[in-house]
Amino acid sequence: MSYVKSKAAVQQPVSLSWQQGCKSIAHSRFWFLLLLSMGTVSNVVYTCTVPLVGFGAIAGATLTRRRALLVILSMWFVNQLLGFTVRQYPWTLSTFAWGPVLLLGAVLATLLAFQKPALSQRGFAGYAVWLGAAFVLGFVVYQAAIGLASLGLGGIESFTLPILWSVFQGNVLWAIAIAVIHIVLVWDTLKRQ
User: Fold this and answer.
1) Is 181 within a domain?
2) What is the C-alpha to C-alpha distance for residues 17 and 14, in angstroms, rounded to an integer?
3) pLDDT in tens, 169-184
4) How many independent structural domains does the chain possess?
5) Residue 5 domain-assigned (yes or no)
6) From CA 88, how far away is CA 90, in angstroms rounded?
7) How far apart are CA 73 and CA 50, in angstroms?
8) I need a surface site. Which of 51, 57, 59, 152 has the fewest CB within 10 A?
9) Which helix (H) or strand (E) segment is 114 a member of?
10) What SS3 class is residue 85?
């Protein structure tokens, strides 16, 4: 058997087991509830720039579609609830209109991550590449939705590189932290099998 064939024979079971571990976590109640609770905490930490893309990318790539969308919808709802009560967002038509825009962008980012191309099913490396790509593409889609809406709702002046970079950094930190937790859970699941 050549090196290439033996390497392929070894990698196939590893990628299959990684895929099985991911599937097991995707259907676990623990991971779903952990993302829900972390999403709620993120709303307390961030006032306006809740990390919907970071959570959407990881939730979309690691949960069933229904659960991923439920995580994002819940995060968005808590954000809006806190915003219009505790944080006293102004009760104006423009402020209310921004809520659905943020939700639309977050849902699109989540659905994009949920696509899970064949690459993401090929073991840890493919998984990691897809998480990174899904996050970056999701961020672009999310900001595009906000940018388009700002043409009608106002606020295009907020699209400066320092502001976008700050929002990106907050989202990427949450995404990395959540991804690390997910990886640990998958590896732990694989160890127990």
Assistant:
1) yes
2) 5
3) 999 999 999 999 999 9
4) 1
5) no
6) 6
7) 12
8) 152
9) helix 93-114
10) coil
